[in-house]
Amino acid sequence: MLTIRTAQLDVFRAQAADRFDRRMLAALARTFPRDHARLGDAPLLALARDGRARAARQGWRSEQSVYLFLALALMFGIGFDSDPQLPWLQQALVDEPGAHPVARLFELHARALDQLDAVEGEHNEHLIKALVRHRALDLARFETDEDGTRDALIAVTLADMHPRKAAVLGEAGLRATARAAGAQARAHGLHGARAQGLVALLRFMLGHQFDDDPAHPWVGRALAMPGPEAVRVQVLHEAALGLLAHGLG
């Protein structure tokens, strides 16, 4: 009688998961060639692995479902399914609670494409304008020691940078993004005004979990750097400008 030990089953499961993730990698490389060119195989494979686990928590496990989840993660950030900056998406996740998980995902994907056209433009014209404004922004704009004033200033800056995206959040949502960015920056040992402003910008443009997103490995590298805060913020900002240049290229 053939006996398969638990350790052997674990190996088989790991091999099957790896084959699954590599099929996702190949599909994403075909559909998102610019992201694939920017990232390469390893980070995109990391995104596939992370996204598969996140999708499973929502009940999405088939190849088609996981692919759609990963596509949304590339569009809105890896934590899109819990991002308070995407209220329309959060509402879509709770709509029709009795619906089949896959049907809900297809509906969510359709809404996401409509939202992208409305906010970023059918040809990304609104996004491109936002990237140009971001590239021209001087972080000295955020220099203030008063947290409340700083939050208001960040909210205004976000609204100026990407008016259509800011309109979805409203002033209260923009201030909430600013406050959350302050906490997020402090979690990485960054306490200054420039750091909070930069983190708010990246959070607003890349998603609330941008600092843990396999699609943006440069963020983790910059945040993990030793040295003075000013240097770390400068490195993070320069890396962000590099991403903007890629997006505008």
Describe the protein.
There is one protein chain. The chain is globular and about 65 Å long. The chain has helices at residues 6-31, 33-39, 41-57, 63-76, 87-94, 101-120, 125-136, 147-161, 163-187, 193-206, 217-223, 229-248. It folds into two domains: 18-120, no CATH class; 125-248. The protein has 249 residues and is an all-alpha fold.
What are the salient characteristics of this protein?
single chain; mainly alpha; 2 domains; 12 helices
Are there runs of 5+ residues with pLDDT below 50, and where? none
Helical fraction: over 70%
How big a fraction of the residues is strand? Answer: under 5%
What sort of overall outline do the alpha carbons produce when their principal axes are compared? globular
* Structural class by SSE content: mainly alpha
Count the E strands. 0
Domains, number: 2
- Please identify the oligomeric state: single chain
Secondary-structure element sequence?
HHHHHHHHHHHH
What is the first-to-last residue Cα distance?
A: 62 Å
Largest sheet: none
Rg: 20 Å
Q: Residue-averaged pLDDT, rounded?
A: 90
Tell me the number of helical segments per DSSP (H or I, 4 or more residues long). Answer: 12
